[in-house]
Amino acid sequence: AKEAGRARMTCYETAMDADREERNALELDLRNAIEKEELTLAYQPLVDAKTHEITGVEALVRWSRPGYGPISPEAFIPVAETSGLIEALGLLVLRKACEAAQQWPDLRIAVNVSPGQFRNPAFADYVRHVLNHAEIEAERITLEITEGYIIQNPERTRQSIERLKALGVKVALDDFGSGFSSIGYLRQFGFDRIKIDRSLTMDVLTDSRAREMLQATVALARSLDIPVTAEGIETEEQGIALQLFGCDELQGYFFGKPLPEAEISKRLKAQTAR
Ligand code: C2E
Ligand code: CA
Ligand code: CA
Ligand code: CA
């Protein structure tokens, strides 16, 4: 009977059905992985633009899906967002990042926050709870948020940021320049840092428009005393250019890919031995 049913469906229906099934399967696997804490974190170095010393790390979630292997956060974070799993995922990430941070007392730890977490009025409370539990100084944590949510809910964003800053954590505007970035947001929301998206930095040496936009952005941020990180630095030349334009911090494959905890510790040891 199943075979006959299948034969009756049009290709289109079959494809829709397969999509939905695949999404449900992914959601189920993800729910399981969160429950069993099978998600791990990789840490990408954030380096001082002048000395290239590691001054911080960005925590990036990793998941090896049973039967599939590693799957990109860009594929499963949206599923977590629409299925109500994002809060549990976000909590797990924050908790693991704070635990790892204990062994790196001199580093700043950046953690990505999804709109779905940020939207929750209790978000600041759970951040406070995790920080207390991990006994980590709030100042060492930077929460990275993208501008998509800000545009939808400017007023609530302002309130959430205020509550977070009252805890002592820092808040960074992520992926700046990737979408409808409004420079006006910079001052309005009290961001402690902005991160310039790879889509701008990658063209800095080849495209004069990208370069001009970048220079104008960095100049404005600096006039507001907001430090700037340039993301996606893949060559030495890009790094030099962005440092000259006024970025105080750099991040990208040239300085280090996202690495397991132990690799970061090794690099820190080599750094202090120098
Ligand atoms: P993002 O926050 O902008 O993170 C930077 C992404 O760019 C990371 O991809 C990183 O591996 C990649 N990257 C860094 N340097 C370079 C470079 O030089 N060249 C290139 N081509 N890529 C570079 P990843 O780890 O795949 O994460 C993708 C996105 O998924 C993140 O973008 C972030 O939006 C989201 N994400 C990752 N982890 C988390 C998490 O724990 N929570 C939430 N809510 N989102 C996360
Ligand atoms: Ca980020
Ligand atoms: Ca980013
Ligand atoms: Ca991004």
From TrEMBL:
The keyword Acetylation does not apply. Residues 23-272 form the EAL domain. Keywords: Membrane, Transmembrane, Transmembrane helix. This is EAL domain-containing protein.
